[in-house]
Amino acid sequence: MEPKDIKNIYLIAICGTGMAALAGLLKKSGYRVTGSDTNIYPPMSTLLNDAGIEIFPGYKKENISKNIDLVIVGNAVSKTNEEVQAVLEAGISYTSFPAALSQFFLEGRKSLVVTGTHGKTTTTSLLSWVLESAQRQPGFMVGGWLKNFDTNHQVPHGEYFVTEGDEYDSAFFDKGPKFLHYRPDASILTGIEFDHADIFNDLDQIKQVFRDYVGLIKSDGVILVKSDDNNIREVIKSASCNIETYGFEEGADWRIESYQFEKGFGHFSLSFKNEHRGDFQLAMMGRHNVENAAAVAGLCFNLGLTAEEINKGFQTFKGIKRRQEIVGEKKGVTVIDDFAHHPTAIDLTIDAVKKAYPGQRVWAVFEPRSATSRRKVFEESFPKSFLKADRVVFAGLFAPEKIKEEERLDAEGVTASIRELGGIADYIPQVDDIVEYIIKNSNSGDVILVMSSGGFGGIHQKILEGL
Questions:
Q1: In a designed cystine with 385, which of 43, 146, 262, 343 is the match (CB 3.0 to 4.6 A)?
Q2: How confident is the model at residue 3 (pLDDT cuts 50, 70, 90)?
Q3: How confident is the model over 21-35, as pLDDT tens digits?
Q4: Over the stretch 58-95, which tens digit does the pLDDT of each residue have?
């Protein structure tokens, strides 16, 4: 069915971050949009309500009416879902979230896709804002909340659409990764490591889906890849497009030089194949974010933007909620919220915060919440990733009953390993006990870095209120 023939669209599991963004895009494009979910809570429920999109609580077959032209099925929804069964029985057309995004918003536009194990959301957001501040009016869909836009999506009025390309599966009827639907004209690949242990068996499986992805990039397009990533080197062999590397290393095509962090800005210069292309000031902390910015700059230069246009976007970028976000400060104690849940991301985030707050004590408070971090997969690599923190607090696993006992991470064992390596670490299973411990033991000048891929029981506000 062509988009012009469609009027009424229904989304099953509409409150997921991506699904809510897609619903918003469709509504703003003139379609009548409704949907259902069992988990209806902010910020996605607020986004949908503000857009005038009706949400039905729970999955009920009577929600599937005959006037629905197309159903979009979220990837967490199984074939046995009551509404899915009603759709199949009624013979209504259905599709997946990434296929719908491609059909409605990527057709006829230049598709810019950011993918990789780490930094996707930040890099996609930064690219979207640089294009917007340069008046290119891009469309975008991001898995985080962009403070500059106060949303996670935008309908395109220019030629570009920016998408966060996820390697997670698409739907019960399409087990391929979402990013295989996104028709990339140009792309950024931030790095490849093992993740998503709930759907991938090993690193080789992940490398294969990335090989499939880079093979899709049009031959006259370009992919920018992190220069020091060995897994990328293996994967990139299947690309037929132009390849440009970025990073701090001497051999990188886009090479970062003279980096220093001062007064809330990362200052650095960028050269392309030894030719100086500009000096930049990024309103973010951490070397890893400067690498993300170098990738964005390289891609934007390829699109014809000037160094001045790129730097204006970097200087005015307000960041993303839950990515190194300062939640508040009480009695000289600063509370920061971050989404980090992979050992590499944890190490980089702690390092960035330590360098942004020199001489101050940094606490790393971690909740194993993602499907991978709750499993034994990272049991040996977790301890080293926390060693740059002055104090470490490990919470209990989120919903441990959903992980087989023999596969569960031993959080208490991880804290013991951190202590054996010379760190100061405590295992405190319950959120309220963690809050009490921090209030009793924190001092003015301390920075409390809270890391979780979920809400962590509202711990951030509890700490601030307790102080």
A1: 343
A2: confident
A3: 999 999 999 999 999
A4: 999 999 998 999 999 999 899 999 999 999 999 999 99
What CA–CA distances, in Å, run from 309 to 130, 135, 278, 316?
7, 9, 11, 11
Q: What pLDDT is attached to residue 341?
A: 87
Whether omega before 43 lies within 30 degrees of 0, making that bond cis, reads yes
- Is the separation of the CB atoms in 203 and 212 below 8 Å? no
Domains of the chain: 3-96 (3.40.50.720), 108-316 (3.40.1190.10), 325-466 (3.90.190.20)
- The backbone region for 108, taken as left when phi is positive above 0, alpha when psi lies in -120 to 50, beta otherwise, is left
CA geometry: angle 83, 87, 89, nearest 5 deg: 115
Residue 68 structure tokens: 């629905």
Look up residue 350 and give its DSSP letter: H
Pull the structure tokens for residue 438: 């921090």
| Phi/psi at 17 (5° precision) | -55, -50
User: How far apart are alpha carbons 154 and 210 in whole angstroms?
Assistant: 27
Q: Facing residues of 267 across strands?
A: 260, 281
pLDDT tens per residue across span 292-319: 999 999 999 999 999 999 999 999 999 8
Q: How far apart are the C-alpha atoms of 289 and 342, rounded to whole Å?
A: 16
* End-to-end C-alpha distance for the chain, whole angstroms: 57
Q: Are 406 and 228 in contact (CB under 8 A)?
A: no
Per DSSP, the residues of 401-465 read GGS-GGGB--HHHHHHHHHHTT--EEE--SHHHHHHHHHHH--TT-EEEEE-SS-GGGHHHHHHH
Closest CA to 245 of 229, 227, 232: 227
Residue 42 clears pLDDT 90, i.e. is over it: no
Evaluated on CA atoms 155, 157, 162, 166, the torsion sign reads positive
Distance CA 44, CA 132 (A): 23
Looking up tokens 């985030």, which residue turns up?
A: 349
- How far from the centroid of its chain's Cα atoms is residue 106's Cα? 20
Strands of the sheet with 110-115, listed across from one edge? 151-154, 139-146, 160-164, 110-115, 186-189, 222-226, 242-247, 254-262, 265-272, 275-282
* Residues 57 and 34: beta-carbon distance below 8 Å: no
Residue-level pLDDT at 9: 98
